[in-house]
Design a protein that fits this description.
The complex is a heterodimer of chains A (227) and B (298). Chain A is mainly beta and 227 residues long. Chain A is built from two helices and eleven strands, in the order βαβββββββββαβ. The chains are: A mainly beta (227), B alpha+beta (298). Chains A and B meet through loops of A and loops of B. Chain B: One of its GO terms (molecular function) is transferase activity.
Amino acid sequence: MQTFDLESHSLRELNSILHAQKDDTNQTSWEVINARGSHAIAVGLDAPIEVTIKGSTGYYCGGMNKQATINVHGSAGPGVAENMMSGTVVIEGDASQYAGATGHGGLLVIKGNASSRCGISMKGIDIVVHGNIGHMSAFMAQSGNLVVCGDAGDALGDSLYEARLFVRGSVKSLGADCIEKEMRPEHLEILNDLLMRSGADAKPEEFKRYGSARQLYNFDVDNAAAY
Amino acid sequence: MCGIVGLFIKDKSLEPELGALLTDMLVTMTDRGPDSAGIAVYGNNTNQLAKLTVQSDNASDDFATLDTDLSEAIGVTVSTRQKDTHAVIEIPAAKIAEARQILSDIRPNICVMSAGDSIEIYKEVGLPKDVANRFEISNMSGSHGIGHTRMATESAVTTMGAHPFSTGADQCLVHNGSLSNHNSLRRKLIREGIHIETLNDTEVGAAYLTWKMQQGSSLGEALESSLEDLDGFFTFVVGTKDGFGVVRDPIACKPAVMAETDQYVAFGSEYRALVNLPGISDARVWEPEPATVYFWNH
């Protein structure tokens, strides 16, 4: 285990050291202490390493992650795991706005609540939130899965493309072109896998599935006058 | 951007540290807006007098004989204490309106920062650490306070464009965001008799709350109605003589974090601003909900 103290060393040093790790590195386990809400911790990693951050983080923690497993023992500020490509990011506390935004792949787990715009424009990432999510979540989400064990706020899935949204609790309101859909066996299978991998205490059967009605992003001649 | 901090003290033993804690919080937020900074401190009033905090770009001339000139003009002895470009005039509350009127004649270059029983506002162009040092904010004690570091969007970088804005006795407001309907609302408020000094959007927000409270709303009710009447982006932190409130617009894209312990309620634009507060590791920390009013009273 390598320990890195952000009080005595700079953020840039931390990220350079983490960026220098190759696929075959022997230093696979890292601990970052005194995070104190700093921005951009462990951004842009591309190696199969584990990074544990003690304390809460600021903007963009774990952004653009590839391969790495990043654990935050605290809460995360705006844009956690933004544009993640692969790997895993786990937040023990809450996440601020636009968690997992534009993510292409990997798994983001938020054990507390996520605030507004969770999974906005997601492009293949899987996001599991053990608590609730705020308004405008999964806005224009294109693909991937958003699983919410608690409740969802206003305008869930507004202008949605092909992402799958699973909510166990209530949905305050659905956004434009987002509808409830039938839960088929293949969806229960996806959910089961994501709930297991994220350590969520919930059963797939307890969820409802929401998705795109596909009325908004397909050209409809009746709407021609609106263009 | 802009950075906001606020601290509302519940445990009196922490009051002597208010200025030092707020300064540290505000300096941490410097990179959210480095062009001007300001702090409002609600101090304890020991001598029954009200306070008029004024500013001048030519402080040495304007303040030199200010106490004797003003005392003579209003017929009551007033005392002043100067801090750099600002001075706090201690004066009976009933004489404040008259003193402001006379000041505009005898010291036309003086600007009024705040008036009230306990509020003092210090603000200038510059970095938070420099502004806080000039006014020795770290040495101030008080029951609550609000700080702001500005990245200007809606009006020029000037002393009067810095936050906090005070448009009523013991009231102040700081803002992160931008209001879109401030011009029409400014005209309406001026017609209602509210005094507005600048072309700044935030001052209109402050004046709106003052107007609502003049009409009998509580701070909480005034904040509720701001959600209806103000258009634009805002995270507001407001202070009154004994209250402290927070509200975010329904979109809530301007960041906000709050923390509460038995000793205090704290606000920061980011969690970084809160990390040096006593007992923060055991505090309840949360992100205030959109379109939801939070307020505390002593």
